[in-house]
Amino acid sequence: MSERQSWPSPGDREASPPPAHDQLPPELPGDLGGLLARVARGDQSAFEAVYDGVAGQVFGLARSVLRDPAQAEEVAQEVFLEVWRTASRFDAARGSGAAWVMTLAHRRAVDRVRSQQASAQREFRASSPEIDYDVVAETVEARLDAERVRKCLGALTEVQRESITLAYYGGNTYREVAGLLGVAVGTVKTRMRDGLIRLRDCLGVDW
Amino acid sequence: MKIRRADPHTLLGAYALDALTEADRARFGRHLRVCESCRREAQGLREATAKLAAGTVTRPPDRLREQVLATAARTRQLPPPIRETSAWPGRRWGMAVACGLLAVALAVGGIAINTQRQLSQEQAHSRAIAAVLNAPDATMMTAQAADGGTATIVMSHLDGALVFTTARLPILPSSRRYEVWLMGSGGARPAGMLPAPHQGMTAPMVVNGLAAGDKVGLTVEPAGGASHPASRPILLLSLPV
After folding, report:
1. Full-model pTM
2. Which chain A residue shows the shortest CA-CA distance from B72?
């Protein structure tokens, strides 16, 4: 953690180049909830800190779901504006700031994918499910926290893991996942739930 | 006939992964509002999915930061919300509403606004409903009727009873009414006439005398009721043993 690089602050953005891809903060800042409370009161410097802490994850997640960097950028912008606008809705009693922001981000990305996806594109996605996981696995290897995610994903059964990754990184519904995996819809629902429970326990989530 | 049985809890994983369709998500969201243990589990699973995002970290273009900060600076923020928790249907009743009882709870809440006249009768009725809802083996099922509308059933074998409510069933001419049946190996037993709907929903009725292996059915009968079903059920639901 002490080696963690922080993102450039606005003042030195011109002077020092942004950190390279593999030096991004490996995890969300622990006090994100506290920052969000300040954002709710209109504190712009807190908002900048939130952005710097989670932009890589928000953008990366949107890119993973949408595939298209330009659309991912639009979604990331929408997400941060929503964070700014609705920070007063964040309730620390109901979950961490990280979960709140990443839930907004994932929903936005998924909503966009579902609203605009033409059936032809959908078929293409359906025919190449392996893309979802490979793209993810490649980027996962780079970071420590991501490594833990990978290890915990690896500890799941194949159906659990694929159900979760196809849904989360690929933006598929559970019915689509069932079709992609060729397993019953009920099985996918169950595996998503027990897989996430195992993942939660493996990652040591405090909720 | 289309029968759908849904234990909403199995959707918790898909919900936390945003893998529900919009309609499923809305329905499940309503369920979460009345199911505290579900909310807790959903929170925990959300924390786990948030960590999954660590596997995707990618540096966004530099212009994004400037755009975001500039747009935020000229965007008005929402005021803090008025928390709705005290308005949950179950709270007013002062009892721990079992998970998955939204439809029932809402309908039960409707009882409170009925006239004073039948108060004691309704208190007994409410107690009977509460007994089923609070039974340790209370199980909720939802089934779709053949011509539209749904029935929500909460049953308890320990209590030997079930609570039956419906929503959005087709409106019948005044000469006809819906009748509820328990259908076991010995044939169909009349379980009562469905009350008239109020805003599309029927107040919960308590059906006693539930036996193992029973199915619950709904038919359209003459307004006076029938002792044997004269028509095919528009809804027939096997109950878990």
Report:
1. 0.56
2. A81
